[in-house]
Amino acid sequence: MPESIQQLPAEALAQRALAQQRRLRWAQGILLLFHVTGFLGLGFSQDPAFFLQFVPLNLLLTLGLLLAFQPERSATFWWFCLVAMAVGFGVEVAGIRTGLLFGFYEYGSTLGLKWLGVPLIIGANWLMLTYTAGILARYLPIPDFLRALVATLLMVGLDACLEPVAVRFDFWQWRFDVIPLQNFKGWFAVSLILQVFFNRTQFEKRNPLAAFVYMLQLLFFFGLGLLH
Q1: For residue 8, what pLDDT band results from cuts at 50, 70 and 90?
Q2: Residue 174 pLDDT greater than 90, yes or no
Q3: Residues paired with 106 in a beta bridge
Q4: β-bridge mates for residue 115, sequence order
Q5: How many whole angstroms separate alpha carbon 89 and alpha carbon 115?
Q6: Is 170 buried (19+), middle (13-18) or exposed (0-12) by CB count in 10 A?
Q7: Using DSSP, how many helices (H) and how many strands (E) does the chain show?
Q8: What is the pLDDT of residue 18?
Q9: Are 171 and 32 in contact (CB under 8 A)?
């Protein structure tokens, strides 16, 4: 009897780990299904408008599943989320109004409902990218500022793959149809600020879904960029 009691905690931990692994596989399967469907629809359909209407839903689904695998969702963690979304949305409002941060551009209709000329979902996108890249950089045994630099480069790299696709499908449009170098400089500056904030905010920074989400997004936009 004492032996079985002693074995219970280990068995419970093993069962919990197995259940977590099953949930992770389900989440990966759902995200893969949505992104593959979107890739085929946008890349090969004669009428991609049907698939474009689901872009905001896909982004919210991805962010929701990603945050569901955050181990401890403390008040500090939600504070980070709120600030990241607010900063991301705020810099976009400043960006389209002044042209000083990223160059001159305006948002199309694909990303949904706007406020002050910026889709409301943009804040969620900045949060997802900041969080995912920040989590990935935590795997490196280097000082926090170097991690922030690595995560910033991951964010800028994903933006470089996203830009041609975004223009093609009316996420946003650039003046004179030219993506300026200033855009990537602005992305680097804002991303670095958010990554420093990420590192200095105290919450548990690990997520088993983060690497999958980043690679899925990267391959999705890189693949669409190669098709046209």
Answers
A1: low
A2: yes
A3: 173
A4: 118
A5: 10
A6: middle
A7: 8, 4
A8: 85
A9: no
The backbone region for 38, taken as left when phi is positive above 0, alpha when psi lies in -120 to 50, beta otherwise, is alpha
Residue whose entry in the numeric block shows the structure tokens 């949305």: 89
Contacts of 154 by beta carbon, 8 Å cutoff, 6+ apart: 133, 136, 137, 214
Task: Name the phi and psi angles at 173, rounded to 5.
Answer: -130, 140
Longest CA–CA span in the chain (Å) reads 77
Picking from 162, 139, 164, the residue whose alpha carbon sits closest to that of residue 150 is 139
Binning pLDDT at 50, 70 and 90, where does residue 1 land? very low
pLDDT at 55 over 50: yes
Task: Evaluate whether 94 touches 220 at the Cβ level (below 8 Å).
Answer: no
Residue with tokens 């946003």: 172
Distance separating alpha carbons of residues 123 and 103, to the nearest angstrom = 19
Instruction: Report how far residue 73's alpha carbon sits from residue 159's, in angstroms, rounded to the nearest whole number.
Output: 27
Local structure of residue 114 (DSSP, 8 states): E
Which token pair is 17? Answer: 């780990």
Mean pLDDT value across residues 155-182: 94
- Top pLDDT among 3 and 228 is at 228
Contacts of 95 (CB under 8 A, 6+ apart): 101, 102, 105, 186
**Looking at residues 72-79, what average pLDDT do you find?**
95
Residue 114, token pair as written in the block: 């706007």
Residue pair 197/81 in contact by the 8 Å Cβ criterion = no
- 27 within 8 A of 65, measured Cβ to Cβ: yes
